[in-house]
Amino acid sequence: MSELLVDFVSSLDGYGAAHGWPGFWGLEGPEYLRWLEEESTVDYTFLMGANTYRQMYDFAAQSGDPDAELRSEEKATLDDLTRASKVVFSSTLKDPLPWANTQLISGDAVAVVRAMKREGSRPLSTLGSLSLVRSLLRAGLVDRFRVVIFPVINGSTGYDRIYDGYPDVALDMVTSRTFDDRIQLLEYVPRVLSGPPGS
To answer: Is 150 exposed, middle or buried (0-12, 13-18, 19+ CB in 10 A)?
Structure first.
């Protein structure tokens, strides 16, 4: 049986990105980058929606462009992602998808992921895809919830608020870690609640 990990990077106020800020808010340090490199050796199948697929494929396409302004760590991460197994849930994208090792599924993501978990052995991880994650969480399919929090507040420039539209969720901590004396990793087992405790 496969385990499903939801994985986000976030500002302290819960934004996945912010206008005008570089990737990782420009705050990634050597400890965090080493951890990312270690994580890239885990043989995940990555799950994503159409918008995340388009964005990440555009980034990955730059890794083959000698004129692209990518740091060596960014290029290595994108190359690892290109080699990884990926599943895209979309009713708008059409086969064949140009990104290597990518399968397109137009059916119900919840039913498909439930079957993947039941029948598979390779760990699953989401990549962005806020609405997909909401659906999988509501369906009780998420085994672990991990967020890396960067020490910024994006009240003026933030977009992609991660937790909007979520059900109430209790989080039982599995592990925590600090990178470069400023970046916080928090990992939990989630429990979807029907309402506030005791209600």
So the answer is: buried
Distances in whole angstroms, Cα of residue 168 to Cα of each of 8, 46, 49, 60: 18, 25, 23, 35
* pTM to 2 decimal places: 0.91
Domain 4-192, CATH among 2.60.40.2890, 2.40.160.60, 3.40.50.1820, 3.40.430.10: 3.40.430.10
Under 8 Å between Cβ of 145 and 25? no
* In 131-182, beta strands by DSSP E: 144-150, 158-161, 169-179
11 closest CA partner among 168, 141, 156, 113: 156
CA-angle at 184, arms to 182 and 186, nearest 5°: 175
DSSP state of 79: H
Could you report the per-residue pLDDT of 11-27, keeping only the tens digit for each? 999 999 999 999 899 99
Residue 115: half-sphere exposure toward Cβ, Cα within 13 Å: 5
Is-cis flag, bond preceding 96, omega within 30?
yes
Give CA–CA dist 172/15, Å, rounded: 22
Average pLDDT (76-94) is: 90
